[in-house]
Amino acid sequence: MTELVDKPLRADARRNREKILKAARAVFAEEGVDAQVDDVARRADVGVGTVYRHFPTKEALLAALTDQQFAVVAAHARTLLELDDPWEAFRQTLWFGAEQTAGDRAFNEIMSAAQPIPRSCPGKEDLTLTIGEMMRRCKEQGRMRPDATVDDIPLMMCGIGSASNMPHPVSEAWRRHLQIVLDGLRAEAASAPLHT
Fold first, then answer.
1. What is the 3-state secondary structure of the chain?
2. Which of 24, 66, 99, 135 is most deeply buried (CB count within 10 A of its CB)?
3. Is the pTM above the cut of 0.90?
């Protein structure tokens, strides 16, 4: 009986995959989840068949982009755990995440979906754990309102991400919105409990 193993991609196949992901990120960021695989293939300068060899469906391609985005933010957040100031680590994590996703229509549409497809996403799970640890340290030092939870963060970031794609009289208004959210999470903002 032959044992099945995942073989590493050949150099040319690996280059094609990277080109496809780069092109897909640009196309879906501009056009949202309704963008077509044909547009991705054209932007990557590969045949549509090549895209489908790497990603059998558009959903698989979108999932790969989402996983990649979470992995980048999670890796950066882990390095920030080394900071002595937990509030600064938390603040920098949210800013980095927002900067990575601002204007990315597809990512924000996926994250804002009422019923996202349940699946494992290691980067998202890693990021949730890291942010949870940062929040625990902030509260321990009295820097964060005690009623804030790690489950609040995705909802807040979804709102900021969605706002980055909406017309607003102020350029890059999402930056102001993120600062308002961060100010609301500080301990001194907790004069009244959150409504439940």
1. CCCCCCCCCCHHHHHHHHHHHHHHHHHHHHHCCCCCHHHHHHHHCCCHHHHHHHCCCHHHHHHHHHHHHHHHHHHHHHHHCCCCCHHHHHHHHHHHHHHHHCCCHHHHHHHHCCCCCCCCCHHHHHHHHHHHHHHHHHHHCCCECCCCCCCHHHHHHHHHHHHCCCCCCCCCHHHHHHHHHHHHHEHHHCCCCCCC
2. 24
3. no
